[in-house]
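Ligand: PMV. Inputs:
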Amino acid sequence: MSISKKDVIANYLPKRTEAGLKAEAFAPSNIALCKYWGKRDVELNLPINGSLSISLGELGSHTSINESDTGEDQVYLNDELLEPDSKFASKVIRFIELFRRDLDQPITVRTVNNIPTAAGLASSASGFAALTLAVNDFYRFGLKKEHLSAFARMGSGSASRSIYQGFVEWHLGVRTDGMDSCAEPLAAQWPGFRIGLLKVATGEKKIDSRSGMQRTVESAPLYNSWPKQAANDLRVIKEAIKNRDLELLGQTAEQNALSMHATMIGSWPPLLYWQPESVAAMHRLWELRASGVQVYLTMDAGPNLKLIFHSESEAQVRDAFPELMDVDIVAPFG
Ligand code: PMV
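Predicted complex:
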């Protein structure tokens, strides 16, 4: 039996939540190099495998919380006031309620995502991470980073990693309350390491990652091999980062992503996030690699590609992919 989010969180908060003043926080978006796919506990978003990502520097979510001046909870997304029962607003308020408990203080939450829509990136990771940091500040809880990471995870699994910059590992953990299933930054730095965002298709995806991974766990025979592969990939990727070995990192990350997609395709009903443009871009990338350029791909639960390369190859990568959005992730390492 799973413990509820509310009960887990209550164990780490003061007895009562005191009224808040105002708070502001930022959290970066992140791209997993070893993917999280599948939950062992759906209530707490506890993963079946550990994962590892790179945070995207200044690309992410800015979130502020203030006392509401209308007497009602209000949620703004990119400066637009949302209907209280919209999907986004109700998710945000449900999350806030885990911390506000019986305190009677309506609040206004404003989230601005500076991830250009042209990048084709989801923002739930940075959004829940920034919200968790803002909540901690607003109610002056003064919680430890690893606890904040575990709480952000309850909003969206990948948000646990967005609490930190740089390379970040999200530990599998063993506890039933999940508090050891939190992220930790790696000490490693890698100047020149680049992630390029390649948006090839538009439109909202029909199946979000929450239901996509559940379907895969329940119906894909191929999924049986995933936890073992992911554990091994995680180990190899950590080693590759330590040695700044782009070939080993790129190969392992690309194979990890495509294996995750293979489990999705093998689900029932089948789950194929790729569009014809995604496949065309993959072929373009493989041709470029065959010509001697070290460039690799990764993909999440959507049709877009993320390219992994070193700044030394930037000119060739840009030449082959003029539409690429290159993210400078050197800054957070400094
Ligand atoms: O955290 P969620 O529920 O948005 O799931 C993220 C799933 C992937 O993006 C496909 C993989 C990952 O580790 O980020």
